[in-house]
Amino acid sequence: RHLVRFLLSDFAQSIFRICVAERDRFPELGQAFYANGPQMGKGKLTEYMASAVARGELRIDDVDLAAEQFQELCKARLWLRAAFGIQQSFSEEEMEKVIQNAVETFMARYGVE
Predict the structure, then answer these.
(1) Alpha helices (H) along the chain
(2) CA angle 52-74-5, nearest 5°?
(3) Beta bridge partner(s), residue 58
(4) What distance in Å separates the CA atoms of residue 58 and residue 64, rounded to the nearest whole number?
(5) CA dist 35 → 49, 70, 74, 102 (Å)
(6) Which tens digits make up the pLDDT trace of 36-77?
(7) Potential cystine with 87: which of 21, 56, 69, 81 (Cβ 3.0-4.6 Å)?
């Protein structure tokens, strides 16, 4: 829920657009954004997932890939609409549907039965 809300926030959307628009003139800007945004978030997810694997709650061979997959699942239907200005706000129901499907899809692949 935190990830989805952050990705859709005005702040995150604005910073993303600026970094993409200015990446050729200021490549260090995009690199800094990536390091302090997507890469940091993936790192936190990776740590959490590795702990869950150690506790026997998840079955993951490549935790880095699984973390990135989960991030992408959380973007479905919402993020591109926000990034391209198609839709500026999302209802709780819209976000919750994506969140629940992301978790269910992830757990279908990596969950322990």
Answers:
(1) 2-8, 10-21, 27-36, 38-54, 63-73, 79-83, 92-110
(2) 105
(3) 111
(4) 14
(5) 20, 18, 19, 24
(6) 989 999 999 999 999 999 999 999 999 999 999 999 999 999
(7) 81
C-alpha distance from residue 80 to each of 25, 68, 90, 113 (Å): 24, 16, 12, 33
Mutual angle of helices 63-73 and 38-54, in 10-degree steps: 120
Tokens representing 13 are: 């959307």
In the block, which residue shows the tokens 């702990």? 51
CB of 101 closer than 8 Å to CB of 73 = yes
Q: Which residue has the tokens 């839709």?
A: 87
A 10 A CB-CB count for 1 gives: 11
For residue 5, give the amino acid letter: R
Separation between Cα atoms, residue 53 and residue 112, nearest integer Å = 9
